[in-house]
Amino acid sequence: MSNQVLELLKKLQRQMIAAPQAIAHLHYHYCFQLKEGWEIFVHIEDELVTINESLGERPVDCTIVISEKDMIKLLSHQLNSTLAYMTGAIKIEGRMGPAIKLLEALGSYKSE
User: Fold this and answer.
1) I need a surface site. Which of 26, 36, 82, 88 has the fewest CB within 10 A?
2) pTM for the predicted model, two decimal places
3) 88-103 pLDDT tens trace
4) C-alpha to C-alpha distance for 87 and 73, rounded to whole angstroms
C-alpha cells in the first residue's frame, strides 16, 4: 500500500473528526479500489471516520475506482472530482449518491 495515500487519508480522517460539519449527513461505507491492486475501506457514521484495509462486517455502499496517482491528487485537492468522473479517471460502482456526497465533502477539507 502506498504510504503517501495512507498518510493523506489519515490526515483527512483527523480533519473530518475535528470539523465534522461536512460529513454530518454521511452514514456510508466506502471502498477505494486503487487500480494498482489494493483496497481501503472508509466508514463514516455519526461524525466518526474509520479507515481499514479490510471490509469488516458491513457491506460497502459504493466502490470508487481510481489510480494511486489520481487518489493522491484528489486527496491533495489537485484533482476536480467531477471532472475526474466525467473523464473516467474515477469510476463509481454501486450507489452513486453516497459517492457524490463524499466527493463533495472532500472539498471542505484543505490539504496543508
Assistant:
1) 88
2) 0.88
3) 999 999 999 999 999 8
4) 15
